[in-house]
Known about the structure:
The protein is built from 1 helix and 6 strands, in the order E-E-E-E-E-E-H. The chain has 126 residues and is mainly beta. The chain has one domain (20-119): predicted glycosyltransferase like domains (Thrombin, subunit H). A 6-stranded antiparallel barrel has the order 1-2-3-6-5-4. A hairpin with a 2-residue loop joins strand 5 (79-94) and strand 6 (97-112). The protein is globular, with a radius of gyration of 16 Å. The termini are far apart.
Amino acid sequence: MVTIIKRERRRLGRFRLEIPATIEVLNSDWEKVKRGFKTSNISSGGAFFHTKEPLPEGTPVKIDLILPLDKLKHLKKDHKQAYIKVSGKVLRSESKGMAISFDQDYVIRPLRAKQRESAPELQSPL
C-alpha cells in the first residue's frame, strides 16, 4: 500500500472569513464589469471566492473588500468597518470558485457609516 502525503504549499496563514467583496474586471470590449462575491478564506497574500462562474486563470482584477470591525474594541464608535482596496490576478479556477493572489500594493482605511451610505461602490455586494 502506498501512502501519498499532500504537502501544504501556502506560506501565509489563512483565516476562514466571509467578507463581502466587489471584483472588477475588463470584459472583451474593454468595459469595466463589477460582480459581488464573498470570500471563504483570506490571507494577506490572497483569498478564495466561491462562485459557479470563476474567472479564467491570469485575469487581472481589482478588489474592494469591506471588513467588519465590530469585534475590535479599540476603534472609535464611528468606525464600524474598514475598506480595503487591492488588485491582483486569478491564480486558480475550479468548479467551486477561484483563488486570487493579491498584489503587494493596497489601501486600507476606516470606513464611517456616512461614507458607505454615500458611495454605492462601497455597498455590500450581497
